[in-house]
Specification:
By secondary structure, this protein is α/β, with parallel strands linked by helices. About 40% of the residues lie in helices and about 20% in strands. It has two domains: about 1-205, Beta-Lactamase (2-Layer Sandwich); about 215-495, P-loop containing nucleotide triphosphate hydrolases (Rossmann fold, 3-Layer(aba) Sandwich), CATH 3.40.50.300. The chain contains 15 helices and 18 strands.
Amino acid sequence: MAGGDRIIDSYALNVNDIVIDVSIKQKYDEAVPFYSISITNISDTTKIILEKIRDEFVAEETKVTSEESTLSDVQEQFKDKILKLLVKYFPNADRKTTDMLINYIMQQNIGLGNIDILLKDINLEEVAVNNAKEPVWVYHRKYGWLKTNIFMPSESRIRHYSTIIGRDVGKEITLLSPLMDAHLKTGDRVNSTLSPISSKGNTLTIRKFAVRPWTITDFIKEGTVSYEGAALIWAAVQNELSIIVSGGTASGKTSMLNAIANFFPPNQRIISIEDTRELTLPKLLHWVPLETRLPNPEGKGGVEMLDLIVNSLRMRPDRILVGEIRRKKEAEVLFEAMHTGHSVYGTMHANNARETINRLTTPPIGLPKQIMSGLSLIVVQNINRRTGRRRTLQIAEVNQDGDVRVLMQFNPIKDQLDFVNEPQTMIETLNLYTGLSKSEIYADMQSKVAVLKWMASRNLNDIHKIGLLMSKYYQNKPVMSQKNLSKTMSQGQAA
């Protein structure tokens, strides 16, 4: 390749029958890899004609989109008009080709243009438009932040995209209200800012909702957590011990929380509480997801995290999942729930296990250290900013005094999670409430390692099939044979 450019990866996308080639290159004159898209099944000549068709209805587009119409309303209004123009310029096109060209025109001129293509790539977690002068950036789950070959044509186009997104979900962004935070019907989260608040230009940031959530199998195969680490977490979950997942921004806290939920038994009631819906649990679970709500422009109708946590305790939950613990009142209620027999799982920002306890016991949260014993495990996630790799940094237990004891520590030289201390408080707790001896507890964890290895060897990463497997595991305790595992999964696939 010219100039020493090197292709790192390539794959194809099908977006409404439009074939998109994706290539990820390391350009010789760029500091970060380059994400490039190209449309392969529409010729340059066809694109010129399609641009002419666009020019014929662009005035009508302006008229319609200036009204109080949602994006879906606008699309429906233009389908017939576009179809008539396509028949005029492409009289011999079959229905499949016509439908593909309609989708292309609507994507480029009524939807979000090339941003729509990026949103269809399941490998991308984030799409960031910083202004019209710089390329769009994307966060790739494998390669981290990448520059793209996509540019916004103007600052007004970025604002237009923000406006139609906001209109579709009942939000508004104007010069008087230049900030917008929206949660789309697809589950994607959108943040938009207008100049001069963002001094370089208008911005649009879209965090994509994971269509296929991370599972414990994905974490193991990616090297994020070891078999032994996953088995330790599983043992805690099975025995209803509370866990907090901590870590920095984008370290995989919510993904780990989702993976932990893979181990929930089906005969318990689970309540999840989030600001924005990110968790996806196996469909066979008795699960009630709750979301907060921002107040309207008059300051009414808001539902806060604390409201939902307090309400959840009246819903007879066995397990409570909280997207993120931020405030004192929320933490107080959750720790009270731990001490009254509920299993609680949540995330918070902290870089290690000791810092997690410090954040909980010092202002602004400031809980008494003696109640930390309600928490059993702290799982710390970390992202290497240079490589983009996410790893479980620590798994630590919390003793009766509220201090932490690191059980497993990530070794960056060997790129593996190692035991550094034997569990003590966790063993004592399990012995007290289950009657299992230390040797029996270790034997149980080894049986879990065997199940996890079986799952990884068969690349079992469908969350619903994992849920089925877990239900069968709990039914057939203490040991599930390889034969029983195979039988269980064949039954699940047949269903």
